[in-house]
Amino acid sequence: MPAHTALPFTHPDGLHRQGRGLIDQGRPTDALPLFQQAAALAEQGEAQRAGNPDRLGRILYDLGYCLYDLGRVDAALAEFQRAVAAAERGDGRGQVHWDNLAACQHLVGTCLARLGRDTEAQAWFAQAAEAAARGDIQGRVDHEAVGHSLHQAGACLARHGDAAQALPWLQQAVAAKEQGDADARVDPASLGASLHLTADCLYALGLVEDALAWFQRSVVALERGPLDGPVSHDDIGRARLRIAQCLVDLRRPADALPWALAAVTAVEDGDAAGRVNLEGLTHALQAVADTLAALGRFDEAMDWYRHAAETAEHGDPAGLTATLAAGAACLRRLGRMDEAAAWELRAGTPVG
To answer: Start-end of the TPR repeats (predicted)?
Structure first.
């Protein structure tokens, strides 16, 4: 939410401005009492019929965001709900700023989702999308914000295995994000995330060929990266890996192999901060091995199973058993029974 021009620090707007400056410096603990004082003064103004509910809503929004940043999610939820109530009353002229209301509603949903209350969160995200679609005070619609709320509404359903119900929300999210923000700027990384989750739902519904097309679209978007900031190669790797999985399911392992190899390369490049997800890397390495095994190239596959097992030992202990079992099966295909038995012993699977 944009802040109003600051006044002296004894005025709620001045305190609000000072608090936002501290937030920008990464000092939420120091900002918190300023936001609390600003909110108290703004509420006093309202009680004396001299206030502006929309201004109060903006302060409460930042107060809630500060609490959320400090990990106090329950307290943040309460402030975001108060921010919604204030924003619904409008500005000093009674005019509702729908974009500000949508931002508050979205963060109520965010808190509820963080607390595991997805059913309630989904309803709030739906309200936020509806409010954002009404535009700002000039009537301009930020379709990216609409799409973001639609995406989160669909994600709530997807997390509970309701792929069929989640799908239309996510498809609407993609359509909204493709229109861009209030300045018609499209965020490819955000769009790619919605394309990927849509594809996940299609795959869960058994629509593998449709899912393949959506995963391919997600890769194209993710490779372009966000509007501001570095590309997350980890996200690209996950999408490439899902393409490989779809192609294997469609009995096209030769087509899947280059996608699996490209997934490994991307995951090794890390996320937007350059951090490598070893669990994701283990999965990508094993996908290459599985694909080579499906092509009958067992000697090559074993090299990749070894690499996957070594990576799992360092970063994905829970996934090590599956990798060892797959490697053992490959060794048996090669007739190397003693080695296979050793891998099975490490995996804790029966020898035979």
So the answer is: 57-90
Give which of 303, 308, 315, 221 is closest to 276, Cα–Cα: 315
Residue-wise pLDDT for 72-111, tens only, equals 999 999 999 999 999 998 887 878 999 999 999 999 999 9
Q: Reduced to 3 states, what is the DSSP secondary structure of residue 319? A: helix
Give tens-digit pLDDT for 188-216: 999 999 999 999 999 999 999 999 999 99
Closest to 101 measured CA to CA, from 72, 130, 69 = 130
What sign for the dihedral angle of Cα 59, 64, 67, 68? negative
Do residues 259 and 247 make contact, with C-beta atoms less than 8 angstroms apart? Answer: yes
**Which CATH number is correct for 1-91+100-131, 1.25.40.10, 1.10.287.40, 3.90.1180.10, 3.10.450.50?**
1.25.40.10
| Burial (CB count within 10 angstroms: exposed 0-12, middle 13-18, buried 19+), residue 3 | middle
Q: CA–CA distance from 98 to each of 121, 136, 172, 180, 240 (Å)?
A: 19, 6, 20, 18, 38
Residue 46 has pLDDT above 70, yes or no: no
What count of other Cβ atoms lies within 10 Å of the Cβ of residue 295? 14
Exposed/middle/buried for residue 83 (C-beta within 10 Å: 0-12, 13-18, 19+): buried
CB 199, CB 215: distance < 8 Å: yes
- Verdict on whether the full-model pTM lies above 0.85: yes
Contacts of 150 (CB under 8 A, 6+ apart): 125, 129, 169, 170, 172, 173, 176
Report the run of H or E that residue 158 belongs to, with start and end. helix 143-159
Say which DSSP state 85 is in: H
